[in-house]
Amino acid sequence: MRLRVQLLLIALFASAATLLGGGPLQAQKVELTPTLGYAFGGFMDSPQYNWRLKDALTYGGILGFTLVRGGQLELIFNGQNTDLTRQPRAGGTRVTAADAGTYMMHVGGLYQIETLGAAKPFFSISAGATAFSVGEILDREDLGDPSTQWRGSMHIGGGAKLFPGDNVGIRLQTRLWINFVNASGGFWCGTGGCGIGAGGDVVVRWEFLGGIALGFGNR
């Protein structure tokens, strides 16, 4: 499963590079945005404990390519170093169980409104993979192998860019990260028609972030 996710992620980034390589770079507006933010949430239950990722700072970067007016293809990296805490499901004190890290690598899209002058409200969405890196955990058998594991993930978000000039601006955004854990899916057909469904556990985190957007190339 881990190998399949990594291969899928490589394929997504390769496809994005191929798409970008189909036309002259100078015909595109390129934006590079280093980001800094703060993320909340991240709960998951196991038979004995309620697990939670502590709220913590996030860091990363976004590389955006304007393909059509108002529409951008984005390559996204987002990382966080935090602690994994646990609390017995029967009740008790929540304690730190291990150090942890989450690292997202996504390919996505952004649509922004271009008709409001310097302010550009936008909506974004992306999909890719998240690497969960967890240190040594007490009662390891309750959570599984503490080594790095890859899982599918996606985000939806929105915000605004402020560009007082042509090539330097501010990006403010909120994102909802949805990480799929132990996911499953299926397809079926019957007398009433066909359908598709998916299920499993998810770890949801809410992030607020900002960054300096640096523009290159044509608008």
Distance N terminus to C terminus?
41 Å
Shape: elongated
What fraction of the residues are assigned to beta strands by DSSP?
A: over 45%
Q: Give average pLDDT, whole number.
A: 79
Q: Say how many strands there are.
A: 10
Taken in chain order, the helices and strands follow as HEEEEEEEEEE
- Strand arrangement, major sheet: 1-4-5-6-7-8-9-10
Helix tally equals: 1
Strand count, sense and barrel status of the largest sheet are: 8 strands, antiparallel, barrel
Percent helix, as a range, is under 10%
Structural class, please? mainly beta
Radius of gyration: 20 Å
Which residues sit in consecutive blocks of at least 5 with pLDDT less than 50?
1-6, 17-27, 184-191, 193-199
Structural description of this entry:
The protein has 219 residues and is mainly beta. Helix content is 9%, strand content 68%. The chain contains 1 helix and 10 strands. An 8-stranded antiparallel barrel has the order 1-4-5-6-7-8-9-10. A hairpin with a 6-residue loop joins strand 6 and strand 7. The longest helix has 19 residues. It is elongated and about 55 Å long. The N terminus is likely disordered.
Please describe the structure with a list of short key phrases separated by commas or semicolons.
219 residues, 10 strands, mainly beta
Secondary-structure map with pairings?
Blueprint: H1 2-20, E1 29-41, E2 43-45, E3 49-53, E4 56-68, E5 71-88, E6 95-112, E7 119-134, E8 149-162, E9 168-190, E10 193-217
Antiparallel strand pairs: 1-4, 1-10, 2-3, 3-5, 4-5, 5-6, 6-7, 7-8, 8-9, 9-10
